[in-house]
């Protein structure tokens, strides 16, 4: 509730006779010059000014923003709502349930722990592709999903009834970010405050990196860790520095042979190369008005891949047209137009806006591309893909000079249905149209269907070793596919709809055929996947697949026809037609004009209003779940999915003083670009891993293991899965991949599982550190990457640089993020991980200040020392408070308990 209005900005906006309380930006001098995204932040401060956390001086400082300056102004941003998916959402609700018990232990009331901002959770990360290639695949996969996840779903249903302002979208309805842009996003929020209806910009934080998809709709939002999202739900503002804003000018139009996917892969490469980590990117200029909303959303979705906090598009007529198409009410649309024009938030390309940095892309220069085989920013021009594959294969397989697998690596495979073929390096094992990045975009989805039709008419078929699938982010996609009449052609190539969820993009690709899996592993084949997703990190897509590529939906279909990455689409035929003529990709590539005509005839507003009218209801399975009752959750001690975590065990009303770190050992020494997938994988795991052994000991059969992601409500599984990615490389071991380290509690420091070693260190009372390289923690906003790190006993992570979300999450769990001195690294300092570490100067935080550096002494086994001053990456006073309290949740809980006294 606003208690201060230093600028007299509070006023009334009349929209067709309806009155809304608003906070006018033009009352603050300098506001008109700000970029769109900073105007949204300015309104946020005006509306929440209280004279303490948000002050007049902070508001003036933001209004006088210097584009050329480095970020140094801290603000407290209060998001309008919180968005969650179930992998990260389940632990959020687990933590809230645990906080209800903890606040009672501190003398407070359980009902105080309740979302203060609207919170919506979409169950989209749990469906796995067990069945594919048949019309009933979607039904069979959903059935298995409920069998695997019944406990989690019961728990979420309890949360929906126990907490106020918390809604759950049941399984099988869509992907969180597509549901967000098509239904949940308000663009302009309304909420009754003290009996008055208030209007303000829709903003959100989400427990998934790709929350930025909503930036395409003019909604400022980004991904945060689950820990930070919980605090936001509980009314805690997000502490942040006002960022630099990169202006990205779009000109020209996409050429006929290219797609929106090619545009976003090009932008990802450009921005990654430029360097936008921690910055806002904002698209501007005359060219923006010709960018369809679906393309804007695709670009916004990939913001984490190019590293920016947000990737904003302004609000204009294109925005209103999309809101109307997707079934928003005329009253809401008129409010959006009136409010944004009143506040200077309506796009006016004639106005010159100052940005911190400038970039430009002529869309007419975009060419068909793919990305891989490891990272989204590693773009490959399609015409060069065969040559590039032959270079890259050397990193994944034992090959001859030509880059093709040796004959000894070729494997004969006979499937149970009688089909026989040869497998070799580079064969496409998975071709999946998946992920909201592209399934939200009718232009590329319909292009895939038209290409499938053209291929079928030419007599082409998918190769028998390819696992094919379509997993839309919304049921509306199925509606327009059916209306277009193109589903039979997709199905003929094996592209049947398998579910409505993230599937392959997050590692839920499901198993390969057992005969194929055996051939791959017995012969150490480097097979590939091609998906229309946003992430292709190592070990993410499928444990049997070493090389992963991102591509547009039509190219996914094309690669299923080709069957291999060792393929030149310009010169190699996909097959022959009925007359024996060679058929090339150019012969079946969809005509963009025809695609747009089919879209125009196949998509209408009624599809959206009909599908979303029952979005929260769910099917008969959801309705049939037994729902626990009560304000606190009745934990089942036998559950292997949902368990009460230990974060608040022994917690007191006042925090213990922060201490220096002494006698620490290195748990892992890691290289560059270690992702949150490497730290906390979401996919499948095997029975010989610590997580697998835990489940077997608790009576869970191997077939019921599910994935790490689905078991995020059980800290016991997740601790054991931390640093357990099958492709992680701990440099303390030579030539070893996977979750292993050296255990120096044993003589000679033998190889051991990371979890087992960490438990031995805890028993010995030895703190731990992790050493890393550049871009540590890139990728998903995965709170368990920080939670698991903390619960293993890691006190500090020392790297060359951090990605934004993971650094914040580490602080949120009481882990100290440190960086090597500029230009230095673990290697340049001679560190190999066998040292004992002492970190002094940390205790200065007890004085209410944050030291810029702390002193690190690494003592080798022979007594020699490497010493350096590490940069403390606690960037704001708010983060310092969280660290002093042992984490953000402990801070919030103490604040709530103190108010209750």
Shape: globular
What distance lies between the first and last C-alpha atoms, to the nearest angstrom? 21 Å
Could you tell me the strand content as a percent range?
Answer: 15-25%
CATH fold name of the domain at 371-603, please?
A: Aconitase, domain 3
CATH class annotation of the domain at 371-603 = Alpha Beta
List the strand order in the largest sheet.
26-29-30-31-34-33-32
What integer value in Å does the Rg equal?
27 Å
Q: Low-confidence stretches at least 5 residues in length (pLDDT < 50)?
A: none
Number of helices: 30
Largest sheet: 7 strands, mixed, barrel
On the 0 to 100 scale, the average pLDDT is: 93
State the helical fraction: 25-40%
β-strand number: 34
What is the SS-derived class?
Answer: alpha/beta
* CATH level-two architecture of the domain at 371-603: 2-Layer Sandwich
Q: What would CATH call the homologous superfamily of the domain at 371-603?
A: Aconitase, domain 3
